[in-house]
Write a structure and sequence with these properties.
mainly alpha, elongated, 3 helices, single chain, 108 residues
Length: 108
Amino acid sequence: MIFDTQTLARIIERSFDLSMDGSLPQEARAEYLAHGKKLREQMMHLLGARFSSDSVELKQATSAMHETNAALSQAADDMNAVVQVVGRLGELAGYLDKALRVAGRVVS
């Protein structure tokens, strides 16, 4: 049995992307970079590896990989949602500025 290196490659790519994401704290970016490098190194070894289809270790690694991939996807979706909300806050502030300009009297 061959290990699913395509999913692992996506995880590595996401790790490297997150390591360069300025919206994350520096400590988190450094950890994403370190994990991305380690996973890339392991993938290079996995490319030529063959496993017994009943290998418990392979099943555990595959399960953990798919769970991690799903978690990274969810985190990316969450980050996109945060960016969208920040945009909406700016839009709201603009509308409020316009409303205040046309207000007859503003009490401060």
